[in-house]
User: Which sequence fits this backbone?
């Protein structure tokens, strides 16, 4: 069955450092992968989408990589700030499943001042 | 663009009553919406796929008679929790899919349901 694993439930880093979150998957060949941010008591907010034929994508301080050979995506936040503290979810999607995405359990990032 | 709203944002109801949650796409039409529930510190669990003008598709283990879904228009899907019980207390989130080359999902802010 399809499985998505996100590294550790929680990640604590110091302000200004780069946060790196990992998303590994098995038994899946996604056409694309998405990263979302979720704050407590709120719905997820879409951040980035990377397609299977893309190696890297950037948006401001965010960078996502996608390695379909390793079946892994890395999500980086550079120059992290306390406001970046949230839970980050990765989700896999593909046209074959009519737009449904399968979500990982999330990694809670805490950036300390 | 691609804004999804939910109403209400939180609701408290008594056991045995029914509660309706609305999910609206505000600036686009959504032929398909998804309903999720989320327990504290857990990820999103897909409950059902709501298709405009047809019956919803429920995930395995989700009682379709308990969680009634209606997608009456291209901008509105509703989830009704019937005969609610305390174990139905959860955070319910809807999303709408948008095709921009590939499918993307945009989520509503969620509805916190507490059944007493």
Assistant:
């Amino acid at each position: 069955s399809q499985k998505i694993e996100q590294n550790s439930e929680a990640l604590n880093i110091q302000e200004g450092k780069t946060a790196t979150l990992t998303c590994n998957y098995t038994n899946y060949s996604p056409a694309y992968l998405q990263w979302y941010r979720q704050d407590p008591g709120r719905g997820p907010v879409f951040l980035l989408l990377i397609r299977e034929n893309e190696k890297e994508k950037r948006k401001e301080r965010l960078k996502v990589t996608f390695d379909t050979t390793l079946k892994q995506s890395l999500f980086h936040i550079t120059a992290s700030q306390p406001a970046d503290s949230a839970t980050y979810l990765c989700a896999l999607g593909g046209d074959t499943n009519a737009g449904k995405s399968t979500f990982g359990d999330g990694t809670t990032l805490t950036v300390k001042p | 663009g691609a804004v999804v709203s939910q109403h209400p944002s939180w609701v408290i109801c008594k056991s045995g009553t029914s509660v309706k949650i609305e999910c609206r796409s505000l600036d686009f039409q959504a032929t398909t919406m998804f309903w999720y529930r989320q327990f504290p510190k857990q990820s999103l669990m897909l409950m059902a796929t709501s298709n405009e003008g047809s019956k919803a598709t429920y995930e395995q283990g989700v009682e379709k008679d308990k969680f009634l879904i209606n997608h009456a228009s291209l901008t509105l899907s509703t989830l009704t929790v019937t005969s609610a019980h305390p174990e139905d207390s959860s955070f319910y989130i809807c999303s709408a899919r948008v095709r921009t080359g590939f499918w993307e999902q945009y989520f509503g802010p969620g509805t916190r349901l507490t059944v007493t």
Q: What stands out?
A: The first strand of chain A starts at residue 3 and ends at 6. Chain A is about 0% helix and 55% strand. Residues 41 and 66 of chain A are 29 Å apart (CA to CA). Chain A touches chain B at residues 31-32, 34, 36, 41-46, 49, 51, 89, 91, 93, 95, 98-101, 103-106 (CB under 8 Å).
